[in-house]
Specification:
By secondary structure, the chain is of the alpha/beta class. Helices cover about 55% and strands about 10% of the residues. The strands form two sheets. Strands 1-8-5-4-2-3 form a six-stranded parallel beta sheet, with helices on both faces. The protein has a two-stranded antiparallel sheet with strand order 6-7. The longest helix has 27 residues. Bound molecules: zinc ion (ZN). Zinc ion (ZN) binds next to helix 10.
Length: about 375
């Protein structure tokens, strides 16, 4: 069984208004789930609009991350108040929590992404972290959300940093899926990989303009936010698990194990992981195209103010055995790094990151 997409998708400038009648058909008492103080206004509007439709919605916020502590606390709130749906309105962590909670309680989830930082509004997947933000595991859900509301007016209010992060995460789709699944003899998977290539091209063409000019009548911005929030999700839906992740995400997951005072976004870390994956392909698989891809990506990442080394993520890999910890987690048994079509050892990762961080590698 495969859940490819949300049941109903509303997109565009008035997506929320258009979605309201559909939402009121499936819920009379939803819980609106959020996290960031900066999006309180939007969630207040969502609450007001629902109340005006005689829907008795309530709000709750995550305290930490998409973590078991928050999930069980919100579960209890829903059971106590007999909420009949979750409206997850926020970034990836909020969307992932909302989907996970709704599925475990067998109630519908409505996702309302408030930035273009991720495709979590689309997918049947939740990433679980500790309350300190350390990656634990991916949980495959039975289905994508019931309704996805991709309201451009809401997304316009997000800081441009979220857009850059979403671009880096969506770019990774092509580089990860094409190396892990090129030999998979399944037409649907092959077509998903091709969509991720078109998605990458779109981001290379439109990403910078979308980031610099932002919104209004900017078709680059519209194309880019929809690429990050919708198309990236579609690739995961059609292609399944092996179209999603490889070394870039494996390295992301490992980097989150190091608790640092500066919080970085998912896509910002994945972007660094992506550069490391390409270096790994060059080092272990003699991939001559990897260097060109690195140059192309670096040019865009610099324009988007994205970090391009682990030290720019506020982590010194040469301190506190950080390098060992990252290499151990990257190479653990369950790691996505093993989807690569060549063997990777801890020694490879230590050598890769040492050279990368010392910038002995010409990039
Ligand atoms: Zn990702």
């Amino acid at each position: 069984m495969q859940s490819i997409s949300p049941e109903i998708i509303f997109r565009g400038n008035d997506a929320w208004e258009k979605a309201l009648p559909q939402i009121t058909k499936i819920t009379k008492n939803p819980l609106i789930l959020g996290r960031s103080v900066s999006t309180n206004n939007l969630r207040d509007k969502i609450l007001r609009d629902l109340n005006n439709q005689n829907i008795s919605a309530k709000s709750a916020n995550l305290q930490f991350d998409c973590c078991y502590e928050d999930i069980s606390r919100i579960n209890k709130i829903i059971l106590t108040n007999n909420h009949d749906a979750v409206i997850a309105a926020g970034g990836g962590k909020v969307l992932d929590s909302g989907k996970h909670i709704a599925e475990s309680l067998n109630i519908p989830c409505i996702t309302v992404p408030l930035s273009a930082s991720t495709c979590a509004g689309w997918t049947a997947l939740s990433n679980i972290y500790t309350k300190h933000g350390q990656f634990i595991k991916d949980v495959a859900l039975r289905s994508c959300p019931k309704i996805l509301v991709y309201d451009h007016k809401f997304i316009q209010t997000a800081p441009s940093r979220t857009l850059a992060s979403g671009i880096a995460d969506a770019l990774a789709k092509w580089y990860e899926s094409s190396i892990t699944s090129a030999t998979v003899d399944d037409g649907l998977v092959q077509q998903a990989i091709q969509i991720s290539r078109v998605l990458r091209d779109q981001l290379l063409i439109d990403g910078k303009k979308a980031f610099m000019d932002e919104f209004e009548n900017n078709s680059s911005w519209r194309n880019t936010i929809e690429a990050c929030g919708l198309t990236a999700g579609l690739v995961g839906g059609i292609g399944g698990e092996r179209c999603r992740t490889a070394a870039a995400h494996a390295i992301h997951n490992a980097i989150t194990q190091i608790i640092s005072p500066n919080k970085f976004m998912h896509g910002e870390i994945v972007g660094v992981g992506l550069l490391l994956q390409l270096k790994l392909e060059e080092m272990k698989n003699n991939n001559k195209l990897a260097d060109q891809s690195i140059k192309q990506l670096l040019a865009l990442m610099n324009e988007l103010n994205l970090p391009t080394t682990i030290s720019q993520l506020g982590i010194d890999v040469f301190e506190n055995q950080n390098l060992d910890k990252i290499a151990d987690f990257t190479c653990r048994d369950k790691s996505e790094i093993h989807f690569l079509p060549f063997e990777i050892s801890k020694k490879d990762i230590v050598e890769l990151i040492t050279n990368f961080e010392k910038q002995k590698i010409k990039i």
